[in-house]
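Example record

The entry below shows one chain as it appears in the dataset: sequence first, then structure tokens.
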Amino acid sequence: MRRLAAMAMCVAALAPLARGEYADYMVIDLEPGALRRVAFYPAAEALPGGLISNAAYRTTKMVLRKIRAKGVPWTMGPFADGFVRHIELDSDFYIGVFEVTQAQAALVGGTKRPSDYVIEGGMRPVTSSSFLEIRDGVSKAGGKSPYPAPPAAESLIGRLRERAGGLALDLPSEAQWEFACRSGYGNDRWNNGTLVSMANKDDNLPGRYGWNTRHPGQSKGDAPPAEDRTALVGSYPPNAWGLYDMHGNVNEFCLDWWSEDVDAVSPGGIYVGAVNAKGLCNADGSPVRNQWRVTRGGAFNSAAQSCLSWIRNKDAVTHCPATIGFRLVCTDERVLRRADKSWVN
């Protein structure tokens, strides 16, 4: 009976797809009594009501976009030593189209001070939550469930996983994050294809950061001072792969422990984009204190240069800053196998 029920759920989830279409978009319904927990769509244009015009996709549902990364050669970085690393990720993955919002977190009991904002606090990214609250649990300084263990059940991601029917949701590795952010462009471009000027004030940057807060498209609902808060997710144009706010708005946590010496992550000194699960060492060989996690993307108070796709930042796992949020990835093999096929309803 359980197997029949599971098969019925799969058929229902794939119902939006027509003959010959691929499941490039996955929508997870976070409402407690949702009849269909997961649904798949071939494109953003197929989402009922429209991705931006339907507020549900930023409040009660989560939208993830499939990133076809498996075996695609690319260069990550440059890193602290000035060099890039040649990477080929070993699997595809889904990644959140938006940063996780306060309204989405509230559905599983994880909202943080939405009254900080004049309007639409729920559609702004989760902030003021530590890495331990978001993923690893707070029973000790280093977390009770650090990677490669799954997120702690009581953490925000743990509760989102449970609401999503047990799907393998987690933070991205920094390699996954950078690959998705770049959307096929090199390190001389922003992720919409425009050239990087390398100036602190860069009008080409397609996001919200400290030096362009009056950029067209800025939300009008920011709390005073208007230039010192996040914008609604999706306020700025997406990158070439349909992902929003990966330059500016908030820095985003990654799974990796901070290490300047990225080659130390992989035996033999070959960096393959694996999660740095141990911290290892700095570029000068000194040990890393296991209290920092990698963040990416820059925030609303960052300069343009801090919002580049390859810039690496870090923050303590116990810190609760107003400038850091997160987005989720899904690497669940059940989902990826379904989405890799051209389904016939």
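Notes for this example: The chain has six helices and twelve strands. The mean pLDDT is 83.
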